[in-house]
Write a structure and sequence with these properties.
CATH topology: Immunoglobulin-like
Shape: globular
Distance between the termini: 84 Å
Strand order of the largest sheet: 5-11-10-7-8
Order of helices and strands: HEEEEEEEEEEE
CATH class: Mainly Beta
Number of domains: 1
Radius of gyration: 21 Å
Strand content: over 45%
Structural class: mainly beta
Number of strands: 11
CATH architecture: Sandwich
Length: 167
């Protein structure tokens, strides 16, 4: 009987052999300010955002460390970050929120001002990612304090504030 039980135990998969669920400890902001980049491809639908889309970027280059952002078309601002957790290399969905200064953004195609923008974005544990906003239209440029946040499962992991100023 002892021999049979030993053989059965050897045939069972080891405990912990199943895929480990992601565990996020924190987000480290590693840089912030102004950026240059290239549009990677066409915008992707993101209904919770101010413009209704997000545009994946590539060739991200940190241009200046500042929390003061010029109110000009084409300006890109935000931060570089690393999701700290396990297992390394695992893709996780981060909820990105941007809170706009009062009175909000007034898209000419909408009757209501937008006070915030929200969408989910995939990022990788342990690798640097970016949270960037680009002024693509005149109506997006609202002076004041802009707040960018990253959330995971209802918990805010990072927040960075920028002041957009007319030059």
């Amino acid at each position: 009987m002892k021999l049979t039980l030993s053989i059965v135990l050897l045939l069972l998969p080891p405990i912990g052999a199943h895929a480990q669920a992601p565990s996020i400890d924190r987000v480290d902001i590693v840089e912030y300010g102004l950026y240059t980049a290239s549009a990677e491809r066409r915008p992707v639908a993101a209904p919770g955002t101010a413009t209704g889309t997000v545009t994946p970027l590539s060739n991200m280059q940190h241009a200046a460390t500042t929390r003061t952002v010029p109110a000009q078309l084409g300006v890109r601002f935000g931060f570089g970050y690393i999701v700290v957790g396990a297992p390394l290399g695992t893709q996780v969905s981060i909820h990105s929120v941007t809170i706009f200064p009062s009175p909000g953004l007034r898209d000419p195609a909408s009757s209501q001002p937008k006070t915030r923008s929200e969408y989910d974005w995939s990022t990788t544990i342990g690798e640097q990612s970016f949270r960037i906003y680009t002024f693509d239209s005149d109506w997006e440029i609202v002076p004041g304090v802009w707040t960018q946040q990253l959330w995971y499962q209802g918990r805010m992991l990072a927040e960075q504030k920028f002041t957009v100023v007319k030059q």
